[in-house]
């Protein structure tokens, strides 16, 4: 290839690499710094000692309650491949955030502003209380994922967040 074409190609590649990629393609979505597909040892080390562990439906389940004094529950499921299959958080911990900054207690409006129109939405129930959810199908370097925000029906605030590999179906 001659120098002129080579230089032009180098400029095009540089410009392409400097353009921000569409949401989720450059960095995996995460909650609390944990993302599906992440090595289990790394994720569990980050979270520390669980309050409870159990085995259900082919998953090792690690449950963290009242982390750092906040009324919250974090559930991490580890698959047979020893990677994180899903992470779910519920409660009031203000430090729990997605990569775009959505946290427990944020409004449904803020979620839509930062994530756009959900791929699916509907009514559900959490512990016998009316709720609704937004589900987002994500594609990024960690693969295909589903991010679910569950809102209190009256306050319209995030009450729970679930991030999971596509192969694991949510139990909304």
Rg, Cα atoms, Å? 19 Å
Distance between the termini: 56 Å
Number of domains: 1
* Tally of DSSP β-strands: 8
Main β-sheet, spatial strand arrangement: 1-2-3-4-8-7-6-5
Envelope shape: globular
CATH architecture: 3-Layer(aba) Sandwich
Q: What string, H for helix and E for strand, traces the elements in order?
A: HHEEEEHEEEE
Q: What does the average pLDDT come to?
A: 79
Structure characterization notes:
The termini are far apart. This protein has a single domain (21-165), classed as Pathogenesis-related Protein p14a, CATH 3.40.33. The chain has an eight-stranded antiparallel beta sheet with strand order 1-2-3-4-8-7-6-5, with helices on one face. A hairpin with a 2-residue loop joins strand 1 (52-56) and strand 2 (59-65). The chain has helices at residues 3-18, 40-47, 108-115, and strands at residues 52-56, 59-65, 72-78, 84-91, 120-126, 129-140, 143-152, 158-165. With 172 residues, the chain is α+β, with helices and mostly antiparallel strands. The protein contains three helices and eight strands; from the N terminus they run ααββββαββββ. The protein is 19% helix and 37% strand. It is globular and about 35 Å long.
List keywords for this structure.
eight-stranded antiparallel sheet, alpha+beta, globular
How is this structure best summarized?
The chain has 172 residues and is of the alpha+beta class. The protein has three helices and eight strands.
Describe the protein's topology.
Layout: H1 3-18, H2 40-47, E1 52-56, E2 59-65, E3 72-78, E4 84-91, H3 108-115, E5 120-126, E6 129-140, E7 143-152, E8 158-165
Antiparallel strand pairs: 1-2, 2-3, 3-4, 4-8, 5-6, 6-7, 7-8
């Amino acid at each position: 290839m001659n120098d002129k074409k080579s230089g032009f190609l180098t400029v095009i590649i540089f410009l392409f690499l400097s353009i921000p990629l569409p949401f989720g393609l450059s960095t995996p979505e995460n909650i609390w710094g944990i993302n599906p597909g992440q090595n289990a040892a790394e994720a569990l080390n980050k979270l520390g000692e669980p309050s409870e562990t159990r085995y259900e439906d082919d998953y090792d389940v690690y449950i963290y309650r009242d982390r750092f004094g906040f009324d919250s529950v974090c559930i991490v499921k580890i698959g047979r491949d020893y990677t994180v299959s899903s992470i779910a958080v519920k409660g009031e911990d203000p430090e729990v955030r997605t990569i775009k900054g959505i946290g427990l207690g944020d409004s449904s409006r803020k979620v839509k502003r930062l994530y756009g129109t959900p791929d699916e939405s509907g009514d559900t129930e959490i512990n016998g209380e009316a709720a609704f959810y937004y589900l987002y199908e994500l594609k990024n370097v960690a693969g295909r994922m589903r991010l679910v925000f569950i809102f209190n029906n009256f306050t319209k605030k995030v009450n729970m967040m679930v991030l999971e590999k596509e192969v694991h179906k949510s139990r909304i």
